[in-house]
Amino acid sequence: MRNLLRKGRVIPLFAMLALLLMGCGDPTLSALMPQGEVANKQYSLMVLSLAIMIFVLLVVFIIYVFVLIKFRRRKGDDTIPEQVEGNHLLEILWTAIPILLLIILAVPTVMQTFDLSAKDKPKKGELALKVTGHQYWWEFEYPKEEIITSQELVLPVNTKVHVELSSADVIHSFWIPSLAGKTDTNPGDGSKNYMWIETGKKEQIYKGKCAELCGASHALMDFKVKVVSKEKYKAWVDSFKNASGNATGNAAEGQKIFKKNCMSCHAVGKNGGNTGPNLTGFGDKQRVAGVLEHNKANLEKWIKNPQKVKPGNNMPNVPLNDEEVDAVADYLLSLKLQ
Question: Any idea where the Cytochrome oxidase subunit II transmembrane region profile domain is (predicted)?
Fold first, then answer.
């Protein structure tokens, strides 16, 4: 290994690995592929800061190489180069230039920080949204539409969304990398944060995450953002409001079991508790518990042992036998909006 390092043969290998890794990642979970106004503004700040850092790095390298060559020790030459200590012009330059670069970066950063965290009332055509972080799931409330849902956030295209953020337990951080940077959700009535996002001009599903360490299942606190056409959004709102939750067959038996054991925490439509996720439209979701592939086997796995899927979450182990779990799973999968 030492011989390889000495000969420099391993450097091209690392260079190729770095190049390959640059192509990895999810385009719906990347701040480097911005969608919408907020993401573009934040991306511009990243480009500006990177440009300043590269500029400083290049200047330092150029000066370093210049000094290394010009003032290198030569055979037979023991003269000491002219010393520049105390040179007023140089000291002013290397003090003033960093200050100037900091001002160039600080001014747009401060301006955008206040702009993107502004608490504004939605205007016509804009949307109000309340986001609440829980261990380990997300609750989304649409005040005007009188809808409360969880884990999958549905938004119309080309719309400004005013977001009010809070937490039901500990500090979380709401982050949709492709649409907006992270903002903390703090516990307590007087600790609300505010932000706004722009959904972009195309239908797309984005991935969101909790960006603040909040417990054992922090890494599993994911959610989806479904940006749909305004017509589809209106249809979704109407379907959600009119969802009845009525079921037939084995699902009907599961509905009875669900009402007896689960509705103290969960709600379907406007009926039920509010300490757990609202399960209206559960059959249309893409993930079970936000992390498992959406199918009956995974749903039964979640119902039987939620702590194994998401350690530390607040859902208890409900004492149901296999037949009851099967019926409840059928009922939940039948909860479709369309």
Answer: 23-120
Tell me: the pLDDT tens digits for 255-311? 899 989 888 899 888 777 788 899 988 988 888 988 889 999 999 999 999 999 999
In the Cβ-directed half-sphere of 42, how many Cα atoms lie within 13 Å? 26
Each residue of 179-202: b (16+ CB within 10 Å) or e? Answer: bbbbbbbbeeeeeebebbbbbbee
- Amino acid sitting at position 309: V
The single-letter DSSP state of residue 187 is: B
Higher pLDDT, 61 or 70: 61
In degrees and rounded to multiples of 5, residue 22 shows phi and psi of: -65, -25
What is this structure's pTM? 0.82
Instruction: Name which of 52, 180, 57 is nearest 113 in CA terms.
Output: 180
Q: What is the DSSP letter of 263?
A: T
Write phi, then psi, for 176 (nearest 5 degrees). Answer: -120, 90
Tokens of 149: 């849902």
In sequence order, what are the residues at sequence separation of 6 or more whose Cβ sits closer than 8 angstroms to the Cβ of residue 23? Answer: none
